[in-house]
Amino acid sequence: MASDSKAWSAFSIVATLAAVAAAKKVTDVAWRAATGKNPPINPADPDVDTTEAVLWAAFSGTAVGLVRMTVQRKAALYYQRSTGHLPGQLQADGK
After folding, report:
1. Is the pTM higher than 0.85?
2. Which of 70, 81, 82, 84 stands 20 to 30 A from 40 (CA)?
3. Alpha-helical runs (H) found in the chain
4. Helix or strand or coil: residue 44?
């Protein structure tokens, strides 16, 4: 069972990292299309307008969170189809 847990962890991490990288590119392009400007490199920088920093944080955070959740759900379904069970961390009874 420990090897299942390690396999799931590795699979989940790789899928999530790939999805987050793709989401970042998509959010950057969407931000440029909507505002005509590049997204803030560091929203915490005092030179970045507060409204722009807040909007970017909300937009990018929501997009990355949704993509991450979706990819993890798809990865769990793939894992379940491949092994016949959900990873231990996702099973309702925690086994």
Report:
1. no
2. 70
3. 2-35, 50-83
4. coil
Domain boundaries, the chain: 1-18+47-89
**Residue 40 confidence class, pLDDT cut points 50, 70, 90:** very high
CB 72 within 8 A of CB 19: no
Cα separations (Å) of 72 from 35, 45, 49? 30, 32, 34
Instruction: Provide the pLDDT confidence category of residue 16 given band limits of 50, 70 and 90.
Output: confident
* Token pair recorded at residue 50: 């507060």
Give the type of residue at 60. Answer: S
Give the integer Cα–Cα distance in Å for 91 and 87: 6
CA–CA separation, 32 and 53 (whole Å): 14
CB 72 within 8 A of CB 16: yes
Amino acid at 7: A
What percent of the chain has a predicted confidence (pLDDT) above 90? 39
